[in-house]
Specification:
single chain; alpha/beta; TIM Barrel; 6-stranded parallel sheet; 4-stranded mixed sheet; 10 helices; 19 strands
């Protein structure tokens, strides 16, 4: 494939040629081999495709909310070519065999690759860690997403096992005895506990959906001390404030001072990734109080509009948090950059034409989004995975 007349994050105009799934050449006036597809970018911006560290596709067992086919289509429409899936399925993903089956099905669908995480405790029982000791090297992450491990003793032993095996522990920070009456305190206490455990054992730790000013400050302080911690922030936690939106999500929408602190941390390089926390629910489940929202197809538009157009964050910094940062956390060295020899995983975006979010037009099986009707910039025009088009806007 040859992509002509594309704009880079620095405003330069380039042509880009892919071959055998990788970027073969970047320059001007490049020619495509006979019979190869030529795409005229017409001055739109070409970025490395996005990687989501925090996503739910609901397979197995909850496919009425989302399945791998619809999740893959939603990811491709949002500019994503790789997602990291949470284990809170039915049954809970506690075995490498179940993880491999999900990953294999994503490869069969072919629109977006997936890594399936494994639970910290077996079946989320909060106690049993024996399955961790025999996990193969192919398992990169473990997490108790949606719950958090409540026992400090159990969590300490999990950190020790992960340190020996080189596994990254993803933390949903919530002290569940406290969250019903003070979710801010619940997030802050578990954040600090897990940062101390990471420092003590030298275990790689990734903090999911950081939402409070105190939590992001603690993570920054830990980074300055050399603790091996990374973190993600969701699009909805930088777009909404509690006074504007009370949509049910965990952690909840926060106050304006929290939004300011998160954006400041992003601007100085302390936030490593944007994680969508794409959490599809049926209308019935949402009406019953299920927490979460879909986010793959709105992530770039929300972040570009808020961070770049409204707050002046350089596009290169946003691209780093949506592509290269998560690629490095995942150990995907050949992804997340536009350079010869890198995987030809690309996204073409229109930064200048506004578009309106319409849930009915999304590719997800679910429609639970508080962004309905929002006017955003940063429309996804084309997604390319391994040199092949996986999404093309009408």
């Amino acid at each position: 494939m040859l992509i002509k007349n594309a704009r880079t994050v620095n405003g330069e105009t380039i042509d880009l040629l892919t071959k055998d799934g990788v970027i073969a050449a970047i320059g001007l006036a490049l020619a495509a081999p006979e019979g190869e597809e030529v795409v005229d970018a017409a001055g739109r911006t070409l970025l490395p495709s996005f990687i989501d560290l925090h996503c739910h596709w609901r397979t197995p067992g909850l496919e009425y909310k989302e399945d791998i086919t619809t999740g893959s289509a939603s990811a491709a429409a949002g500019g994503f070519t790789f997602v990291n899936l949470m284990p809170n399925t039915k049954p809970i993903c506690s075995t490498p065999e179940q993880a491999f089956a999900v990953e294999q099905e994503a490869r069969r669908v072919g629109l977006c690759d997936a890594n399936q995480t494994v639970s910290i405790t077996k079946d989320f029982d909060g106690v049993t860690l024996d399955h961790l000791k025999t996990l193969p090297d192919s398992v990169r992450f473990i997490t108790e997403d949606g719950h958090g491990v409540q026992s400090t003793d159990v969590m300490a032993r999990a950190f020790a096992i992960c340190a020996r095996k080189g596994i990254t522990l993803m933390s949903h920070a919530e002290e569940m005895d406290i969250s019903p009456w003070d979710y801010r305190l619940a997030e802050n206490i578990e954040t600090i506990r897990n940062l101390h455990l990471s420092e003590y054992y030298g275990t790689r730790l990734h903090m999911c959906h950081v939402s409070t000013k105190e939590a992001i400050e603690a993570i920054q302080n830990a980074k300055w001390k050399g603790v091996p911690v990374t973190c993600e922030v969701t699009p909805h936690h930088i777009w909404f404030t509690k006074d504007e939106c009370d949509y049910r999500v965990n952690p909840p929408i926060r106050q304006s001072e929290d939004v300011t602190a998160l954006i400041q941390a992003m601007s100085v390089g302390m936030v490593d990734a944007i994680g969508t926390d794409h959490a599809p629910h049926s209308a019935e489940d949402k009406a019953k109080g299920a927490a979460g929202m879909i986010g793959l197809e709105t992530a770039f538009g929300v972040c570009y509009t808020k961070l770049c157009r409204q707050c002046g964050l350089p596009l290169a910094r946003l691209s780093e948090m949506m592509s290269r940062g998560p690629a490095l956390i995942m150990g995907l060295e050949n992804k997340g950059l536009i350079a010869p020899g890198m995987d030809a995983d690309l996204v073409l975006v229109d930064l200048d034409t506004p578009w309106v979010v319409k849930a009915e037009e999304m590719h997800s099986k679910s429609r639970n989004t508080p962004f309905e009707g929002a006017e955003l910039y940063g429309k996804i025009c084309l997604t390319v995975k391994g040199g092949k088009v996986t999404y093309r806007a009408e």
